[in-house]
Design brief:
The chain is α/β, with parallel strands linked by helices and 758 residues long. The chain contains 39 helices and ten strands. A five-stranded parallel sheet has the order 2-3-4-1-5. A three-stranded antiparallel sheet has the order 8-10-9. Helix 18 crosses helix 20 and helix 24 packs across helix 25. The N and C termini lie far apart (74 Å). 44% of the residues are buried.
Length: 758
């Protein structure tokens, strides 16, 4: 009696589900034969939903301090991690949040920072479309980023809609390597600091963190540990069975925890229990839960309650006729014995692969092509692929059929996205493992040959990734060289984006394509690949690899000019690797070859001689002449200034007796051959030297002023922190009150952060 009463209550509360008009069933057979899989309902996730909303309320409360939070959602594939966040998206937005998302992709790990940059581009689009606060948003972004905003706009196109056009403005600081990476992270933090508030917080959702590249993880760590960034909720999903000690994500999360600034909430999504599986099947069949109990029990036993596996298994039963709608009985019926005895695939991927094989051949092929790109692919890329004369059917048209089948979705971009990672895996399995390299090579060649120059620039990483996956199938030497050139372009472009691990992968692949004979016929390409690769590996701290690549360059180089770049990287690498002895010896050898001999041992007499020689040159120049020195043009002397400038950092820290020697020599070169950016450092360093050694504070003050003038003349913003700290921190306090220097020292710190000079 209680069960009957419960059924009646369900029918009264859900008449549209359980009390369908049977007279209309005859004319709507198709609707009754379709499974009503409810993607808008989260089964057995009330506790997780409540936790997420509670954390959000903390970052959106004006009274809450330290208002950035991190939520990590873990679980096996198919347990509904992403669905949990997506279900709350509209609730976050209703409460004033700007919700943005990005998704990492196993097939696209080589494409640098794509997930985070897509999310930030979406965020800037929301800011630009906020008509109520558009003026406030623009003013805040302009004030926070200044001229350096153009650096960020190159990676986040929609940011340009918030920035004023800059025509003839000051040039941007020329930075590279670690400095570029630090600058990028700092500018993104400034962007979010200036636009987040308790009334409009940001919810940044990044999915599939287990596939995040190291550059993205470092940027993520920088954001969530920023003590000045309030009102941000970072939500990340990952498969915990794929992340353990030694995994980059594991190490990143440990670093965030040890930092101890950002509260972290962990949510683990498990498989559905029996009651939830029954609720899902009851909804799918529009049948009372009591009637679906036996079917749900069999499905639960077969799938273990994995939500994705449950829905796919249910669909397969319908497709095979073991679950069907009876027109005569007006209800769903199933073959229980056959279902219980049915052999089931080991996982959802195998189950869906079998399902895909039942589709039309042109849909097969289209899904194979789409899966080769990963979880999603831009429609324009597929259209370029379709222009290849050897492709007889339209990939885009066939994928529209896959969209109708629910296998893919059409999303903004426009792009096609697999409805689940497991569907992409199933589609990729349609390509025989023995044929995958050839398949990727074919896709890459089609895109490369059919793309215009602008399209190659726009989809560079996509094209190169496909070609690299099949590069071992290339036998033509000229084709290998062309791909090596494209790999160099991709590596340099990735490096400019501060995505150094992908850059290294591109450059390593390019090196793998050249042979020993190419050093003779394609000399510049070989030097560029090896030098760039060594420089990127230096940034990544792979010092053994740096040494190996530089040794190859030095061995192949015939002239000092061909070896200079490698020597410079070697000095940088050795100096940062606490091997200043090798760095110093190499730099002195190079300087000697450039005509600037520096003694290997410094005595007080030699310091006095350098000071006297410099003073003699200075006496030949009036104040006006010093300010109007011609630009340096001698290539050897410009290189000498670069090496001396680099050494100046090391000797100040470890070999102070050399500091006045280096400062004097740089100033002598500037007075004799003209000035360059490094001359600003030279005048400042010389001022420090005569302050300490001669007590000549008045002349030191004068040369400090010249250093500032040269800094402005060459717009050498990358050197501003060093010069300002030298002048305002070590020289001016001898003649001016210390308080007068504080604003300039603060500017030095802020400029150092914005240019990556930490």
């Amino acid at each position: 009696l209680e069960e009957v009463q419960e059924d009646l209550q369900l029918m009264m509360s859900n008449p549209e589900k359980f009390l369908a008009d049977s007279s209309s069933a005859i004319g709507s057979t198709k609707n009754y034969q379709s499974l009503n899989i409810r993607t808008d309902i989260l089964y057995d996730r009330e506790e997780e939903t409540s936790t997420l909303l509670e954390v959000f309320s903390q970052i959106s409360s004006p009274s809450c301090t330290n208002r950035s939070r991190m939520v990590l959602i873990s679980g096996y594939s198919g347990t509904g991690k992403s669905s949990l966040v997506r279900k709350l998206e509209h609730e976050f937005i209703r409460r004033g949040a700007r919700f943005v998302s990005g998704k990492f992709d196993e097939m696209q790990q080589i494409q640098p920072l794509s997930a985070i940059m897509n999310a930030l581009n979406e965020y800037c689009n929301l800011l630009a479309h906020d008509t109520v606060h558009i003026d406030r948003n623009r003013a805040a972004v302009e004030e926070a980023l200044g001229s350096e905003g153009q650096v960020l706009a190159a990676l986040i196109p929609n940011l340009s809609r918030l920035l004023a056009e800059t025509i003839g403005g000051p040039p941007l600081a020329e930075v590279s390597g670690r400095e570029a990476q630090h600058r990028l992270a700092f500018l993104i933090r400034l962007l979010l600091r200036s636009t987040c508030s308790s009334s409009n917080p940001i919810v940044l959702f990044l999915d599939d963190l287990q596939w995040a590249d190291s550059s993205s993880l470092e940027l993520m760590r920088s954001l969530v540990t920023d003590v000045a960034l309030d009102n941000m909720l970072f939500v990340g999903c990952y498969r915990d069975n794929e992340v353990g000690p030694g995994h980059p994500l594991f190490e990143c999360l440990e670093s965030i925890r040890q930092f101890g600034i950002t509260p972290i909430t962990s949510i683990c999504t498990s498989n559905l229990n029996m009651a939830s599986v029954n609720a899902l099947i009851s909804d799918a069949l529009s049948t009372l839960p009591r009637a679906t109990g036996s079917l749900s029990e069999a499905v639960f036993q077969k799938t273990g309650g994995n939500a994705l596996f449950v829905t796919e298994f249910l669909t397969s039963l319908r497709d095979e006729g073991l679950l069907q709608y009876s027109l005569s009985r007006r209800k769903w019926e199933w073959e229980m014995e056959h279902i219980r005895s049915r052999t089931i695939a080991q996982n959802a991927v195998d189950l869906m692969t079998a399902k895909l094989l039942r589709l039309a051949p042109e849909v097969h092929q289209a899904l194979r092509v789409a899966s080769a790109f990963g979880a999603h692919c831009l429609e324009e890329v597929l259209q370029i692929y379709d222009t290849d004369p050897c492709h007889l059917s339209s990939t885009v048209a066939a994928l529209d059929i896959a969209v109708a089948e629910g296998l893919m979705a059409k999303v903004d971009g426009p792009a096609y996205r697999f409805s689940h990672d497991q569907i992409q895996s199933a589609a990729y399995k349609l390509i025989l493992e023995s044929e995958r390299e050839s398949f990727h090579l074919h896709v890459g060649k089609s895109l490369w040959q059919q793309s215009s120059e602008d399209e190659i620039d726009e989809y560079l990483f996509v094209i190169v990734d496909q070609l690299h996956r099949g590069a071992c199938r290339i036998s033509d030497p000229s084709e290998k060289i062309r791909l090596a050139e494209l790999s160099l372009t991709a590596g340099r472009t990735a490096a400019e984006m501060s995505a150094f691990l992908p850059a290294s992968a591109y450059l390593q692949a390019g090196i793998g394509l050249i042979s020993d004979g190419d050093w003779e016929w394609h000399r510049e390409l070989c030097f560029d690949l090896y030098n760039w690769c060594a420089e990127i590996e230096y940034i990544l701290g792979k010092f053994d690899e740096v040494k190996a690549h530089l040794e190859e360059v030095i061995k192949k180089g015939r002239t000092l000019r061909e070896k200079l770049r490698a020597y410079y990287t070697f000095v940088q690498s050795s100096g940062s690797h606490s091997n200043t002895g090798d760095a110093f010896a190499t730099a002195l050898m190079v300087l000697d070859n450039l005509g600037e001999s520096i003694p290997s041992e410094v005595t007080q007499l030699e310091v006095q001689q350098e000071l006297l020689a410099t003073q003699a040159l200075l006496r030949t120049k009036t104040e006006g002449e010093l300010l109007q020195l011609k630009p340096m043009s001698d290539i050897d002397k410009l290189e000498a200034m670069r090496f001396l400038n680099l050494l100046l950092l090391y000797v100040y820290a470890e070999r102070k007796e050399y500091f006045p020697i280096m400062a004097c020599r740089m100033l002598q070169l500037s007075l004799t051959y003209g000035v360059c950016k490094e001359s600003a450092v030279a005048f400042g360093a010389y001022g420090v030297s005569i302050c300490g050694l001669l007590g000549d504070t008045s002349n030191a003050y004068r040369f400090g002023k010249i250093a500032l003038t040269l800094l402005e003349r060459f717009q050498a913003k990358e050197y501003l922190p060093r010069v300002f700290i030298t002048v305002y921190g070590l020289i001016n306090d001898w003649t001016e009150p210390l308080q007068s220097s504080l604003p300039c020292l603060e500017q030095a710190i802020n400029t150092g952060l914005s240019t990556g000079n930490n």
